[in-house]
Design a protein that fits this description.
By secondary structure, the chain is mainly alpha-helical. It contains 17 helices and two strands. It has a single domain (7-465), classed as MFS general substrate transporter like domains (Growth Hormone, Chain: A). It starts with 6 loop residues before the first helix and ends in a 24-residue tail after the last helix.
Length: 468
C-alpha cells in the first residue's frame, strides 16, 4: 500500500535539521542550475538570433549526462555522499565566477560560453544521484516515502522556478550599469548571484554532520577500497543497472516517461524566445509575462497532484497530462492564427491574446505535473537503495541522450519552417507518447515484472545474475 505524503508529514520532515539543510541545498542548487541554463539560451539568442545555435547550447548542458551520468551513478553508490554534494557545489560556484569573468572580457566569444556550460553541467552529474542517495541516510524508513515525495515536488518546482520564473524575471528587471568603465549587463549579474548561491549550498551541506555518511560508507568499505577494480567494472555495472531497469517494466516505463517530460522542458526553453518574439511578435522582455503562468501552474499542480494521483492512479494521470499538453501546445499557434484573421492590422497588441496564451501556459504547467510527478514517484518507489544512484543517473543520461537529436531537429525546423510548425509536431508527439504509455502498461500489466517493488532487499552482488 502506498504511503501518503501529507502536508503535516512534510512539516514534520522539515523540522529535522539535517534533512532541512539537504532539502534547501536541493531547492537552491536545482533552481539556479535551471536559471543558469535558461540564461545561456537567452544569451545565445540575443547574440546570434539562431534557434539552431540555441539548440547547441542545450546540447552543451545535455551531453555531460550522456557521457558522465552512468559513471557518476556508479561512483556515487560507492562514495561519501556528503563530500560529493559539498565538492560539486564548490566547483560549480567557481565555474559560475569564471562565466562572469568570460562575459566581462568578451561576451561575443561563444566558445567559452559553451565550454563553461559543459563544465558546470558535468559537475552537476555527480550532485543529482548523490542527493537522491543521501535521502535514506537522513530519514527513517517510515519517513522515506514522504521525503521522496517532497523532493520530487521540489525537483519539479525548481525546474519551473529557475527556468520559467526566476531567470526570465531577473534578466528582465536587473538593470545594466557601469562600474569603473566596465558595463555590467543583467546576465553577468545573474551569474554572479548564481555563484554566491552555489556557495550557500556548500555551506548548507557542510552543516550536515558527517557521521551518518561515514557510517554508510563504512558499510561499503570492502568495495570502495578497490578503486582500480571499480574503474574496471564501471561500464559492466552501468550495464547491469540498466538491465535491472529494463527487467522491471514499471520502473522502465517510469524512467521513459520522466525522460520524455525532461525533454519537453528543454524544448520549451529552446523555443521560449522564438515563441515570444517570432510567433507572438512581442518584445523579448514580455517573456516573463508569457511563461510565468506556466511556472505558477507547475507550482499549484504539484500541491494537488499527490491527492489526484491517489484517486485516479499514476497511469491515468499521465495519460490525462499528455492529452492536455498536446491540446494546449497546438492551441497556441492556432489562437495566434485566429487572432491574425480577426485583427490583421494590430493583432499582436491585443491584450486578449496575451491573456489567452497565459491561460494556455498555465494549463500546460499543470499538465506537465500530471506527467512528471507520478513518473518520478514511481521511479523512486521501484528503485532499491543498493542501486538507486545508478537508476537516477541512468535516467538523467537517457533523457539527455534523447534530447540531443531532438533539440537539433527542433532548432532546424524552427529556423526553416517557423515556430508554429514545431508546436504542431510537438502536440502530435505528446499525444502519441501518452497513448503509447497506456499501450505499454496494458501489455505488461499481467507480467510479474510489473509487480516488483523497491522494497526488495536484493544484495548488490546478485546484479551479476541479471539478464539483459
Amino acid at each position: 500500500m502506498a504511503v501518503r505524503a501529507s502536508p503535516e508529514g512534510f512539516r514534520s520532515l522539515l523540522k529535522k535539521r539535517n534533512f532541512l539543510y539537504l532539502w534547501l541545498a536541493q531547492l537552491i542548487s536545482m533552481t539556479i542550475q535551471n536559471a543558469s541554463n535558461y540564461a545561456v539560451l537567452i544569451l545565445i539568442e540575443e547574440l546570434t538570433g539562431s534557434t539552431t545555435l540555441v539548440g547547441l547550447a542545450i546540447i552543451a548542458f545535455s551531453v555531460p549526462a550522456v557521457l558522465l551520468g552512468g559513471p557518476a551513478g556508479v561512483y556515487v553508490d560507492r562514495m561519501n555522499k556528503r563530500r560529493v554534494l559539498w565538492v560539486s557545489n564548490i566547483l560549480r560556484a567557481a565555474a559560475s565566477l569564471a562565466f562572469v569573468v568570460s562575459l566581462l572580457l568578451n561576451e561575443h566569444q561563444l566558445l567559452p560560453i559553451y565550454l563553461l556550460t559543459f563544465i558546470i553541467s558535468s559537475i552537476g552529474q555527480f550532485f543529482a544521484p548523490a542527493e537522491g542517495s543521501a535521502i535514506p541516510i537522513l530519514v527513517s524508513d517510515d519517513e522515506l516515502m514522504p521525503a521522496l515525495s517532497l523532493f520530487n515536488i521540489t525537483f519539479m518546482l525548481s525546474q519551473a522556478f529557475g527556468f520559467i520564473i526566476l531567470a526570465p524575471i531577473v534578466l528582465s528587471l536587473l538593470p545594466t550599469f557601469t562600474i569603473v568603465g566596465v558595463t555590467i549587463k543583467s546576465v553577468v549579474t545573474l551569474y554572479f548571484i548564481i555563484a554566491l548561491l552555489y556557495g550557500a549550498c556548500a555551506v548548507l551541506i557542510a552543516l550536515i554532520p558527517a557521521k551518518p555518511f561515514k557510517r554508510q560508507r563504512a558499510s561499503h568499505a570492502r568495495v570502495t577500497t578497490k578503486d582500480l577494480e571499480v574503474v574496471g567494472n564501471m561500464w559492466l555495472e552501468m550495464f547491469q543497472g540498466w538491465s535491472f531497469v529494463r527487467r522491471n517494466k514499471q520502473l522502465f516505463l517510469a524512467v521513459i516517461q520522466l525522460s520524455f517530460a525532461g525533454v519537453l522542458i528543454l524544448v520549451i526553453g529552446e523555443l521560449a524566445t522564438p515563441i515570444v518574439t517570432k510567433l507572438l511578435q512581442l518584445p523579448a522582455n514580455a517573456m516573463a509575462f508569457v511563461f510565468a503562468p506556466a511556472g505558477i501552474g507547475l507550482v499549484l499542480g504539484s500541491i494537488f497532484m499527490p491527492h489526484i494521483t491517489r484517486r485516479i492512479g499514476k497511469a491515468r494521470a499521465i495519460l490525462i497530462g499528455a492529452i492536455g499538453l498536446a491540446c494546449l501546445t497546438a492551441a497556441i499557434p492556432l489562437t495566434t492564427l485566429l487572432t491574425k484573421t480577426l485583427r490583421p492590422q494590430d493583432w499582436n497588441s491585443s491584450p486578449l491574446l496575451l491573456l489567452i496564451v497565459g491561460v494556455f501556459m498555465f494549463g500546460a504547467g499543470i499538465a506537465l505535473d500530471f506527467i512528471n510527478i507520478p513518473a518520478q514517484t514511481a521511479m523512486q518507489e521501484q528503485s532499491p537503495a543498493w542501486c538507486k544512484g545508478r537508476v537516477l543517473a541512468l535516467q538523467l543520461m537517457l533523457y539527455n541522450a534523447c534530447s540531443i537529436p531532438i533539440i537539433l531537429f527542433i532548432g532546424v525546423i524552427a529556423d526553416l519552417f517557423g515556430v508554429d510548425h514545431v508546436l504542431y509536431v510537438m502536440a502530435a508527439c505528446e499525444l502519441a507518447f501518452g497513448l503509447w504509455g497506456v499501450y505499454y502498461e496494458r501489455r505488461h500489466r499481467g507480467a510479474p515484472e510489473m509487480q516488483e517493488t523497491a522494497k526488495e532487499e536484493e544484495p548488490e552482488p546478485e546484479l551479476d545474475t541479471v539478464a539483459p
